[in-house]
Amino acid sequence: MPVILLIFGFALLIKGADWLVDGASSLAKRLGIPALVIGLTVVAFGTSAPELVVNVVASLGGNADIAIGNVIGSNIANILLILGVAAVIRPLAISHGTVWKEIPFSILAAAVVWVAVNDFLIDGRTFSELSRSDGLILLSFFVIFLYYIFSLSRKGERIRMDGEKTPADRSLAIAIGMTVGGLVGLVVGGQWAVGGASVLARHFGVSESVIGLTVV
After folding, report:
1. For residues 34 and 25, what is the distance between their CA atoms, to the nearest angstrom?
2. Residue 5: CA atoms inside 13 Å, Cβ hemisphere, count?
3. Nearest to 66, CA basis, from 197, 200, 185
4. In this structure, how many other beta carbons lie within 10 angstroms of the beta carbon of residue 168?
5. What is the pLDDT of residues 82-108, one digit of tens each?
């Protein structure tokens, strides 16, 4: 049963994210929201919605190891596995701005997380945690990154967001239905995925952090 929950949870997360991005993008287009704003918000963030939902569900359930492992494992897989496979298939051209701006910002993000969670080494505490104040600091850096992206758009530089595509022309009812259905799929899928992963971890005697770093 936990395996079934995990599989169906992942399926709902993937499909829910697709519906949310398509529906919200079409809805935003019908409401006259600029395509750039759609790409920078709905489309870009919608592709990361499954991870957000999984982490929120894991945090509410007290599964901190799954939440942290999910973020760290996903980034490791994206950079080392996915980028590595893509480069092996065909060499990837990297722009000058990416080398000297976006990649250093990624390194800065990892460094800020390291400092935020290293209470044992920095403050001499008996345990480490990612507190609410640490979360606000991370969100502040994210706002700075958004400002940087919008400043690039004003300079006329081409921005390629994750999952970038042209919103489809859908009716208002279908767009609303896909948006609501996507949100429901994300919530239910996130609960099933975290629940299944937690049960599997306990059953096989594996820590939730390992499950979060790998399966989730």
Report:
1. 10
2. 14
3. 197
4. 13
5. 889 989 999 888 878 778 888 888 899
